[in-house]
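User: Could you write out the 3D structure of this protein bound to pyridoxal-5'-phosphate? I've included everything you need below.
Assistant: Certainly. Input first, then the structure.
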Amino acid sequence: MTMPALALFGGTPVRTRPFPAWPVSGAAEEQRLLRVLRSGQWGRLDGPEVSEFETAFAALHGCRHGIAVVNGTVALRIALLAAGIGAGDEVIVPPYTFVATATAVLEANAIPVFADIDLETFNLDPAAVAAAITARTRAIIPVHFAGQPADMDAMLELSRGRDIVVLEDAAHAHGASYRNRPAGSLGNMATFSFQSSKNLTAGEGGIITTNDDALAEACRSIHNCGRVPGGVWYEHHVVSGNYRLGEFQGAVLNGQLERLTAQAETRERNGRRLVSRLAQIPGIHPQRRPADCTRHSYHLVMLRVDGATFGAPRTRVLDALTAEGIPCSAGYGYSLPDQPLFRNKAFGPYLAGIADALDYSASRCPNSDLICREQAVWLGQNLLLGGEDDVDDIASAFEKVYTHRGELIP
Ligand SMILES: Cc1ncc(COP(=O)(O)O)c(C=O)c1O
Protein backbone atom coordinates (compact mmCIF):
# COMPACT_ATOMS: atom_id res chain seq x y z
CA MET A 1 0.00 0.00 0.00
CA THR A 2 1.42 3.40 -0.91
CA MET A 3 1.48 6.08 1.76
CA PRO A 4 -0.77 9.09 0.97
CA ALA A 5 1.03 12.13 -0.47
CA LEU A 6 2.59 14.71 1.81
CA ALA A 7 0.23 17.57 2.63
CA LEU A 8 3.08 19.86 1.57
CA PHE A 9 2.52 18.62 -1.99
CA GLY A 10 -1.27 18.59 -1.98
CA GLY A 11 -2.01 15.40 -0.02
CA THR A 12 -4.45 15.13 2.87
CA PRO A 13 -2.96 16.29 6.19
CA VAL A 14 -2.67 13.72 8.97
CA ARG A 15 -4.27 16.22 11.31
CA THR A 16 -7.02 18.70 10.58
CA ARG A 17 -8.50 19.09 14.07
CA PRO A 18 -6.89 21.65 16.39
CA PHE A 19 -4.82 20.46 19.35
CA PRO A 20 -5.92 21.39 22.89
CA ALA A 21 -5.82 25.16 23.41
CA TRP A 22 -3.63 26.89 25.99
CA PRO A 23 -4.19 28.44 28.51
CA VAL A 24 -6.95 26.47 30.19
CA SER A 25 -9.19 28.31 32.64
CA GLY A 26 -12.58 27.90 34.28
CA ALA A 27 -14.79 28.62 37.25
CA ALA A 28 -11.91 28.60 39.73
CA GLU A 29 -10.18 31.54 38.03
CA GLU A 30 -13.46 33.39 37.40
CA GLN A 31 -14.61 33.17 41.00
CA ARG A 32 -11.27 34.24 42.43
CA LEU A 33 -10.87 37.12 39.94
CA LEU A 34 -14.32 38.45 40.72
CA ARG A 35 -13.71 38.22 44.44
CA VAL A 36 -10.47 40.18 44.10
CA LEU A 37 -12.15 42.76 41.87
CA ARG A 38 -15.00 43.31 44.28
CA SER A 39 -12.81 43.29 47.37
CA GLY A 40 -10.79 46.28 46.21
CA GLN A 41 -7.72 44.48 47.55
CA TRP A 42 -5.80 44.45 44.29
CA GLY A 43 -2.25 44.69 45.58
CA ARG A 44 -0.13 41.88 46.97
CA LEU A 45 0.22 43.59 50.32
CA ASP A 46 -3.56 44.03 50.66
CA GLY A 47 -5.13 40.70 49.73
CA PRO A 48 -4.71 36.95 50.32
CA GLU A 49 -4.27 35.50 46.79
CA VAL A 50 -0.53 35.94 46.16
CA SER A 51 0.30 34.91 49.69
CA GLU A 52 -1.89 31.77 49.41
CA PHE A 53 -0.29 30.94 46.07
CA GLU A 54 3.26 31.35 47.36
CA THR A 55 2.61 28.92 50.19
CA ALA A 56 0.86 26.32 48.03
CA PHE A 57 3.28 26.48 45.09
CA ALA A 58 6.33 26.31 47.35
CA ALA A 59 4.89 23.34 49.27
CA LEU A 60 4.11 21.48 46.03
CA HIS A 61 7.73 22.01 45.03
CA GLY A 62 9.21 20.83 48.32
CA CYS A 63 10.01 24.28 49.71
CA ARG A 64 9.20 26.29 52.81
CA HIS A 65 9.47 29.62 50.99
CA GLY A 66 8.03 31.07 47.80
CA ILE A 67 8.42 34.70 46.77
CA ALA A 68 6.16 35.60 43.84
CA VAL A 69 7.47 38.28 41.49
CA VAL A 70 6.54 39.93 38.20
CA ASN A 71 8.27 37.43 35.90
CA GLY A 72 10.86 34.67 35.68
CA THR A 73 13.64 36.99 34.50
CA VAL A 74 13.32 39.20 37.56
CA ALA A 75 13.08 36.08 39.74
CA LEU A 76 16.52 34.98 38.50
CA ARG A 77 18.02 38.41 39.06
CA ILE A 78 16.60 38.75 42.57
CA ALA A 79 17.87 35.28 43.48
CA LEU A 80 21.37 36.21 42.31
CA LEU A 81 21.31 39.49 44.22
CA ALA A 82 20.03 37.72 47.34
CA ALA A 83 22.95 35.30 47.10
CA GLY A 84 25.35 38.24 47.08
CA ILE A 85 26.46 37.75 43.47
CA GLY A 86 27.86 41.00 42.14
CA ALA A 87 30.48 42.93 40.23
CA GLY A 88 32.87 40.69 38.35
CA ASP A 89 31.61 37.39 39.80
CA GLU A 90 31.29 34.59 37.27
CA VAL A 91 28.06 32.64 36.85
CA ILE A 92 28.01 29.49 34.72
CA VAL A 93 24.98 29.19 32.43
CA PRO A 94 24.06 27.02 29.46
CA PRO A 95 24.24 28.49 25.94
CA TYR A 96 21.01 26.70 25.04
CA THR A 97 18.29 28.48 27.00
CA PHE A 98 16.08 31.54 26.84
CA VAL A 99 18.21 34.67 26.93
CA ALA A 100 16.94 35.61 30.42
CA THR A 101 19.10 32.94 32.09
CA ALA A 102 22.15 34.94 30.98
CA THR A 103 20.80 38.50 30.98
CA ALA A 104 19.68 38.14 34.60
CA VAL A 105 23.35 37.51 35.38
CA LEU A 106 24.35 40.70 33.53
CA GLU A 107 21.64 42.60 35.38
CA ALA A 108 23.26 41.45 38.63
CA ASN A 109 26.45 43.02 37.23
CA ALA A 110 28.06 39.59 37.01
CA ILE A 111 29.68 37.73 34.12
CA PRO A 112 27.79 34.94 32.34
CA VAL A 113 30.19 32.11 31.47
CA PHE A 114 28.84 29.57 29.00
CA ALA A 115 29.30 25.82 29.48
CA ASP A 116 27.99 23.56 26.73
CA ILE A 117 25.00 21.26 27.03
CA ASP A 118 24.95 17.50 26.56
CA LEU A 119 23.98 16.61 23.00
CA GLU A 120 21.40 14.04 24.13
CA THR A 121 19.82 15.43 27.32
CA PHE A 122 19.98 19.11 26.20
CA ASN A 123 20.94 20.00 29.78
CA LEU A 124 24.24 21.37 31.15
CA ASP A 125 27.09 18.92 30.64
CA PRO A 126 28.82 18.45 34.04
CA ALA A 127 32.22 18.05 32.35
CA ALA A 128 31.80 21.38 30.56
CA VAL A 129 30.74 23.03 33.83
CA ALA A 130 33.78 21.59 35.63
CA ALA A 131 36.03 22.99 32.89
CA ALA A 132 34.40 26.43 33.19
CA ILE A 133 34.87 26.80 36.96
CA THR A 134 37.46 29.37 38.04
CA ALA A 135 38.34 31.02 41.33
CA ARG A 136 35.77 33.70 40.46
CA THR A 137 32.83 31.33 39.91
CA ARG A 138 30.09 32.14 42.40
CA ALA A 139 27.04 30.44 40.91
CA ILE A 140 25.84 27.80 38.48
CA ILE A 141 22.40 28.06 36.86
CA PRO A 142 21.28 24.69 35.54
CA VAL A 143 18.17 25.00 33.38
CA HIS A 144 15.79 22.03 33.54
CA PHE A 145 15.41 22.17 29.82
CA ALA A 146 12.00 21.36 28.35
CA GLY A 147 11.00 20.21 31.85
CA GLN A 148 13.64 17.52 32.36
CA PRO A 149 15.70 18.10 35.51
CA ALA A 150 19.38 18.78 34.92
CA ASP A 151 22.03 16.51 36.44
CA MET A 152 21.63 18.10 39.85
CA ASP A 153 23.79 15.64 41.78
CA ALA A 154 26.70 16.57 39.51
CA MET A 155 25.97 20.30 39.83
CA LEU A 156 25.81 20.13 43.63
CA GLU A 157 28.97 18.03 43.73
CA LEU A 158 30.78 20.67 41.66
CA SER A 159 29.63 23.40 44.05
CA ARG A 160 30.64 21.50 47.20
CA GLY A 161 33.56 22.96 49.11
CA ARG A 162 33.51 26.02 46.88
CA ASP A 163 31.70 29.28 47.46
CA ILE A 164 29.24 28.47 44.66
CA VAL A 165 25.47 28.80 44.74
CA VAL A 166 23.34 26.44 42.62
CA LEU A 167 20.28 28.25 41.30
CA GLU A 168 17.83 26.10 39.32
CA ASP A 169 16.20 27.84 36.38
CA ALA A 170 12.98 25.86 36.57
CA ALA A 171 11.04 28.04 34.10
CA HIS A 172 10.06 24.85 32.22
CA ALA A 173 9.82 22.52 35.18
CA HIS A 174 6.58 23.08 37.12
CA GLY A 175 5.77 19.77 38.78
CA ALA A 176 8.90 17.99 37.47
CA SER A 177 10.91 15.75 39.78
CA TYR A 178 14.42 14.37 40.11
CA ARG A 179 14.98 11.19 42.11
CA ASN A 180 11.43 11.74 43.38
CA ARG A 181 12.29 15.18 44.74
CA PRO A 182 10.54 18.20 43.22
CA ALA A 183 12.36 20.53 40.86
CA GLY A 184 12.59 23.83 42.70
CA SER A 185 13.92 22.20 45.89
CA LEU A 186 17.12 20.71 44.48
CA GLY A 187 19.59 23.60 44.64
CA ASN A 188 20.05 26.55 47.00
CA MET A 189 17.27 28.42 45.23
CA ALA A 190 15.11 28.02 42.14
CA THR A 191 13.06 30.24 39.90
CA PHE A 192 9.94 29.57 37.83
CA SER A 193 8.13 31.58 35.15
CA PHE A 194 4.37 31.99 34.68
CA GLN A 195 4.62 33.66 31.26
CA SER A 196 1.89 32.76 28.75
CA SER A 197 3.44 29.63 27.26
CA LYS A 198 4.42 28.06 30.60
CA ASN A 199 2.80 24.98 32.15
CA LEU A 200 1.33 27.20 34.87
CA THR A 201 0.50 30.71 33.73
CA ALA A 202 -1.06 34.04 34.59
CA GLY A 203 0.14 35.67 31.37
CA GLU A 204 3.18 36.96 33.25
CA GLY A 205 4.67 36.19 36.64
CA GLY A 206 7.43 34.30 38.38
CA ILE A 207 8.45 32.86 41.73
CA ILE A 208 11.60 32.11 43.69
CA THR A 209 11.53 28.96 45.83
CA THR A 210 14.00 27.98 48.53
CA ASN A 211 14.40 26.18 51.83
CA ASP A 212 17.04 28.66 53.00
CA ASP A 213 15.49 31.10 55.48
CA ALA A 214 18.15 33.80 55.03
CA LEU A 215 18.00 33.70 51.22
CA ALA A 216 14.20 33.81 51.37
CA GLU A 217 14.28 36.86 53.60
CA ALA A 218 16.76 38.59 51.28
CA CYS A 219 14.59 37.82 48.22
CA ARG A 220 11.49 39.08 50.00
CA SER A 221 13.17 42.33 50.86
CA ILE A 222 14.57 42.86 47.36
CA HIS A 223 11.19 42.19 45.74
CA ASN A 224 9.56 44.74 48.06
CA CYS A 225 11.64 47.91 47.75
CA GLY A 226 14.20 46.84 50.35
CA ARG A 227 11.70 46.65 53.19
CA VAL A 228 12.42 44.34 56.12
CA PRO A 229 10.12 42.50 58.55
CA GLY A 230 9.09 44.86 61.33
CA GLY A 231 10.37 47.91 59.45
CA VAL A 232 8.16 50.90 58.80
CA TRP A 233 6.70 51.55 55.32
CA TYR A 234 9.19 54.19 54.15
CA GLU A 235 12.29 52.43 55.42
CA HIS A 236 14.50 50.76 52.78
CA HIS A 237 17.52 48.64 53.55
CA VAL A 238 18.93 47.55 50.16
CA VAL A 239 18.87 48.84 46.62
CA SER A 240 15.92 47.05 45.03
CA GLY A 241 12.56 47.80 43.47
CA ASN A 242 8.91 46.89 43.43
CA TYR A 243 8.78 43.44 41.84
CA ARG A 244 5.63 42.28 43.63
CA LEU A 245 3.00 40.23 41.82
CA GLY A 246 -0.56 41.58 41.92
CA GLU A 247 -3.65 39.91 43.32
CA PHE A 248 -5.33 39.37 39.93
CA GLN A 249 -2.40 37.27 38.83
CA GLY A 250 -2.36 35.55 42.19
CA ALA A 251 -6.05 34.68 41.71
CA VAL A 252 -5.41 33.18 38.27
CA LEU A 253 -2.39 31.22 39.52
CA ASN A 254 -4.37 29.76 42.43
CA GLY A 255 -6.99 28.59 39.94
CA GLN A 256 -4.32 27.16 37.63
CA LEU A 257 -2.63 25.37 40.50
CA GLU A 258 -5.75 23.26 41.11
CA ARG A 259 -5.18 21.67 37.69
CA LEU A 260 -1.39 21.43 37.64
CA THR A 261 -0.97 17.93 39.06
CA ALA A 262 -3.57 16.36 36.77
CA GLN A 263 -2.17 18.20 33.75
CA ALA A 264 1.37 17.16 34.65
CA GLU A 265 0.27 13.52 34.78
CA THR A 266 -1.40 13.84 31.37
CA ARG A 267 1.66 15.48 29.82
CA GLU A 268 3.93 12.84 31.31
CA ARG A 269 1.78 9.95 30.03
CA ASN A 270 1.35 11.40 26.55
CA GLY A 271 4.95 12.61 26.38
CA ARG A 272 6.29 9.14 27.12
CA ARG A 273 3.99 7.60 24.52
CA LEU A 274 5.00 10.11 21.84
CA VAL A 275 8.72 9.92 22.53
CA SER A 276 8.75 6.12 22.46
CA ARG A 277 7.25 6.15 18.96
CA LEU A 278 9.43 8.99 17.65
CA ALA A 279 12.58 7.23 18.89
CA GLN A 280 11.89 4.41 16.40
CA ILE A 281 12.40 6.70 13.40
CA PRO A 282 15.95 6.75 11.99
CA GLY A 283 17.62 10.12 12.56
CA ILE A 284 15.11 11.27 15.19
CA HIS A 285 16.65 11.68 18.65
CA PRO A 286 14.17 12.70 21.35
CA GLN A 287 15.68 14.21 24.52
CA ARG A 288 17.41 11.31 26.29
CA ARG A 289 15.78 10.75 29.67
CA PRO A 290 18.07 9.57 32.47
CA ALA A 291 16.55 7.33 35.16
CA ASP A 292 16.91 10.19 37.67
CA CYS A 293 14.13 12.10 35.88
CA THR A 294 11.18 10.77 37.85
CA ARG A 295 8.72 13.31 36.40
CA HIS A 296 9.31 15.16 33.16
CA SER A 297 7.03 18.20 33.03
CA TYR A 298 7.18 18.29 29.21
CA HIS A 299 7.02 22.02 28.77
CA LEU A 300 8.36 20.97 25.39
CA VAL A 301 8.83 17.71 23.61
CA MET A 302 12.24 18.43 22.16
CA LEU A 303 14.16 16.28 19.74
CA ARG A 304 17.04 16.40 17.29
CA VAL A 305 16.64 15.63 13.62
CA ASP A 306 19.92 14.33 12.29
CA GLY A 307 19.30 15.28 8.66
CA ALA A 308 21.94 12.94 7.20
CA THR A 309 20.42 9.85 8.83
CA PHE A 310 16.82 10.94 8.49
CA GLY A 311 17.35 11.77 4.84
CA ALA A 312 16.04 15.35 4.77
CA PRO A 313 17.11 18.62 6.42
CA ARG A 314 15.32 19.98 9.47
CA THR A 315 13.85 23.01 7.67
CA ARG A 316 12.03 20.76 5.24
CA VAL A 317 10.94 18.38 7.99
CA LEU A 318 9.40 21.34 9.83
CA ASP A 319 7.67 22.53 6.65
CA ALA A 320 6.28 19.08 6.03
CA LEU A 321 5.11 18.56 9.63
CA THR A 322 3.44 21.96 9.67
CA ALA A 323 1.58 21.11 6.48
CA GLU A 324 0.46 17.84 8.12
CA GLY A 325 -1.21 19.95 10.83
CA ILE A 326 1.45 19.56 13.53
CA PRO A 327 2.47 22.87 15.18
CA CYS A 328 6.26 22.75 15.61
CA SER A 329 9.28 25.01 15.50
CA ALA A 330 13.07 25.04 15.33
CA GLY A 331 13.37 26.79 18.70
CA TYR A 332 16.31 29.08 19.38
CA GLY A 333 18.22 30.22 16.31
CA TYR A 334 21.41 31.05 18.21
CA SER A 335 23.54 29.69 20.99
CA LEU A 336 23.55 32.60 23.42
CA PRO A 337 27.22 33.60 22.91
CA ASP A 338 26.35 34.15 19.23
CA GLN A 339 23.52 36.55 20.03
CA PRO A 340 24.27 40.11 18.91
CA LEU A 341 23.90 41.15 22.55
CA PHE A 342 26.95 39.06 23.49
CA ARG A 343 28.92 39.51 20.28
CA ASN A 344 28.64 43.28 20.66
CA LYS A 345 28.79 43.22 24.44
CA ALA A 346 25.76 45.52 24.48
CA PHE A 347 25.57 45.37 28.25
CA GLY A 348 24.31 48.89 28.93
CA PRO A 349 25.55 50.10 32.30
CA TYR A 350 26.60 46.61 33.45
CA LEU A 351 30.15 45.24 33.69
CA ALA A 352 31.64 48.71 33.19
CA GLY A 353 35.42 48.31 33.11
CA ILE A 354 35.04 44.51 33.06
CA ALA A 355 33.42 43.82 29.69
CA ASP A 356 36.43 44.97 27.68
CA ALA A 357 38.34 41.87 28.70
CA LEU A 358 35.54 39.48 27.68
CA ASP A 359 35.37 37.80 24.29
CA TYR A 360 32.21 35.80 23.74
CA SER A 361 33.28 34.80 20.21
CA ALA A 362 35.77 32.52 21.98
CA SER A 363 32.99 30.53 23.74
CA ARG A 364 32.98 26.94 22.47
CA CYS A 365 29.54 25.31 22.55
CA PRO A 366 29.50 22.86 19.63
CA ASN A 367 26.53 20.81 20.90
CA SER A 368 24.37 23.86 21.39
CA ASP A 369 25.50 25.27 18.03
CA LEU A 370 24.60 22.08 16.17
CA ILE A 371 21.20 21.91 17.82
CA CYS A 372 20.42 25.57 17.11
CA ARG A 373 21.65 25.68 13.56
CA GLU A 374 20.59 22.30 12.23
CA GLN A 375 18.74 19.91 14.48
CA ALA A 376 16.28 21.07 17.15
CA VAL A 377 12.56 20.55 16.81
CA TRP A 378 10.17 21.74 19.51
CA LEU A 379 6.59 20.67 20.13
CA GLY A 380 4.65 22.70 22.72
CA GLN A 381 3.21 21.34 25.96
CA ASN A 382 -0.42 21.90 24.96
CA LEU A 383 -0.10 19.21 22.27
CA LEU A 384 0.16 16.72 25.13
CA LEU A 385 -2.99 17.79 26.97
CA GLY A 386 -5.40 15.69 24.91
CA GLY A 387 -5.75 11.95 24.50
CA GLU A 388 -3.65 9.18 22.99
CA ASP A 389 -5.16 9.79 19.55
CA ASP A 390 -3.71 13.32 19.58
CA VAL A 391 -0.16 12.19 20.23
CA ASP A 392 -0.59 9.28 17.82
CA ASP A 393 -1.38 11.84 15.11
CA ILE A 394 1.91 13.60 15.86
CA ALA A 395 3.85 10.35 15.65
CA SER A 396 2.02 9.35 12.45
CA ALA A 397 2.89 12.68 10.87
CA PHE A 398 6.60 12.18 11.67
CA GLU A 399 6.42 8.66 10.22
CA LYS A 400 4.70 9.92 7.10
CA VAL A 401 7.32 12.62 6.61
CA TYR A 402 10.05 10.01 7.08
CA THR A 403 8.49 7.76 4.47
CA HIS A 404 8.47 10.65 2.00
CA ARG A 405 11.83 12.05 3.03
CA GLY A 406 13.29 11.65 -0.47
CA GLU A 407 10.81 14.21 -1.77
CA LEU A 408 12.06 16.82 0.68
CA ILE A 409 15.62 17.03 -0.55
CA PRO A 410 16.14 20.39 -2.24
C1 LIG B 1 14.57 28.85 30.59
C2 LIG B 1 13.90 30.16 30.88
N1 LIG B 1 14.39 30.96 31.84
C3 LIG B 1 13.82 32.12 32.16
C4 LIG B 1 12.71 32.58 31.49
C5 LIG B 1 12.19 33.94 31.83
O1 LIG B 1 10.89 33.96 32.26
P1 LIG B 1 9.95 35.23 31.99
O2 LIG B 1 9.58 35.23 30.53
O3 LIG B 1 8.79 35.00 32.89
O4 LIG B 1 10.72 36.45 32.37
C6 LIG B 1 12.14 31.77 30.49
C7 LIG B 1 10.92 32.12 29.75
O5 LIG B 1 10.39 32.77 29.19
C8 LIG B 1 12.76 30.54 30.15
O6 LIG B 1 12.27 29.77 29.18
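Residues 71-73, 97-98, 100-101, 143, 169, 171-172, 193, 195, 206 surround pyridoxal-5'-phosphate (CB under 6 Å).
User: Perfect, thank you.
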